[in-house]
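Recall the central idea of this unit: under ordinary conditions, the amino acid sequence of a chain determines the structure it adopts. In this exercise we apply that idea directly, starting from the sequence alone.
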Amino acid sequence: MSERRIPPVSKKIILALLVVALLGVILAVCPGCGVTNPVAQTKLGKVQGQAGSEGILVFKGIPYARPPVGELRWKPPQPPEPWSDTLRATQYGPVAPQTVDALEPSSEVEQSEDCLSLNVWTPGIDDKRRPVMVWIHGGGWTNGSSADESYEGWPTSRRGDVVVVSMNYRLGALGFLYLGRVGDSQYAESGNLGILDQEAALKWVRDNIAAFGGDPGNVTVFGESAGSMSVCTLMSMTSTKGLFHRAIGESGALNTIRSADYASEVTERYMAKAGVTDMAGLRSLTTEQIIKAQGDLMAGQFQSDTLFGPVVDGSVLPEPPLHAIAKGSAEGVDFLTGTNLDEVRLWAFYIPGLLEISIQTAVQYMPMLSKSLGTYVDAIAASYKSRRPNATDGDITMAVGTDVIFRVPAIRVAEVQSALQPKTYMYLFTWPTPVQGGIFGSCHSLELFFVLDRLHAGDSVAVLGNDPPQKLADMMQDSWIAFAKTGNPDNTSIPNWPAYNTRTRATMIFNVNPSVQNDPYGEDRLVWDGIPFDSVTPSPSF
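Accordingly, the structure predicted from this sequence is:
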C-alpha cells in the first residue's frame, strides 16, 4: 500500500489550528497575555489600555467626573460627559495641584485642577467577576497621587486574580477648604470635596468595573494614612452604602476630622495668605496662587495635616464619623485595620533632632499631643517610661506620639465597628527598616512596600535597605487579598487570625515570623481610657 502524504496546504491548516488551540490554553490561564491594545466598553464609551507587567492589563487616566474647573471649582464632582471616539488610557492623568516636595514622586508629574481620573489593573477584560480592590493614596490631604510608582496595582492584581483601581482626588485648598461660611449654598460641601471625589470614583466602579472583569458586588476600599482616614470617613456616610463591602485602613483613623469652627478659622487664615476677602476673590485666583497661599499657610507648622481634611459640615458629614460608625453606618462592612509600631519616627526624615526631644518639649510643637496630654504630660511620660526602663526621652516621645496620633485612634474605630460587625480584624506591623542604623524602626508608611509588593520599586532601597524580606510581602499580600475575597484575612502563610473584639483584642503581629497577640501594649492603651479620639476630644486646633 502506498504511503498517503498530507498536502502542504493541509499541514499549514493543521499548524494554524494547533497554534490557535495553544493560544486558547494560554489565554484561559492568563486572559491578559498576548493582548497589546485591550479595549473595554464602559457606559461612557470605549477605553483602550495596554498590556502591562506580567500580562496584567492596565488602563490609566480614565475620567470619573467632569473637570472641576471654572464654575465647578470648589463644588461637588459632576458625572463625566460620554465620549464617542475610543479613549486612549495609557498615561496617568494629571495629579491634583499641590506644593512641590522633593520627597514626593508626584512633584515630577503634571499638575492640573483637571485631575479627577482613575486607573485600572486587571488580569482580563472578560466575564469573570473578580474581587475589586480600590486604593486611596495618602499624603496628609495635601500631596500625593495615584501616579506614584509605589502604588502600582499589577503585583496585587497578578497575585490575587483581582481587579485593582486607584484614583486621584482633590487635595489641600482645592479639596478641603471649607467655604460654608464664606460662599452661598453652592459651596456648603466644599470642605469635603476630596471625599466626595472618592465617592464619585466608587460610583464609577459600581457602574463600569464589570467591563474590566471586576465584580461590582465585591468591592474592597483600602488606603494608608490620609487614605485610611478617607476609608474610615467613607464608612460613616449613608450615601456610600453599597458602593463597597469591605474596608482596610492602614495607619489612619478619625482623630483629625475638623469641626466647622476650626475649618472656618483655617479658611480665614488661608484667605489672608491669599490676599482675598470673599468668594469673588477666591474664584479669581490662579491655580498657582491657590497653591502658594496653601504653602504659606502650612509653612512652619509641624502638624499641617490638620489644616486640611474632612469637615463635620452638617451635610456630607452631619456628625463626627466615629459617632456615625458607632451608630451602625458601616454595619455589614467587613473591616481590617492596624498601625506600625514606630509610626512617628518617619518624621525624623523631615525634622532634625526629633528623635532626641522629650515629650514635654514635643507638646509645644504638636497641637494634638498638647490636646491629648494636657496637664498629664509628666504622668503619661512616667507611665510609658516605667515599661521601657532603657528608653531615651526621644524613645518615649516616639511611643507616645505614635499612640496618640495613630494606634489608639485606630483601636477606637475597631472597637465601635467590631461591636456591630464580627468580621473586624486588627494588625500591628513591627518589621524595622535597617537603614541609617535602624533609627526609623517600623515607621509610618513602611508597610506599604510589603502590602503592595513594591520592595524594589523606585528608591525603595533608601527606605528598606538592600534585602527586604519577600516572605513578609507575600504574607501581607495574601492576607489583604484573602480579606478582599472573603472578608476574612486568614490564609496558609500566617497563623490563624482571630477577629478583633474588646474582650480579647486579638492582633496579628506582622514581621518575618508573624504571631497573634491579645492586646499588645495593653498597658499603654489603658493610659488613654476615656479619650474617644473622635475629632472632638481631642480636637485639632492652632
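Residues 334-542 form a domain with the Rossmann fold fold (CATH 3.40.50.1820).
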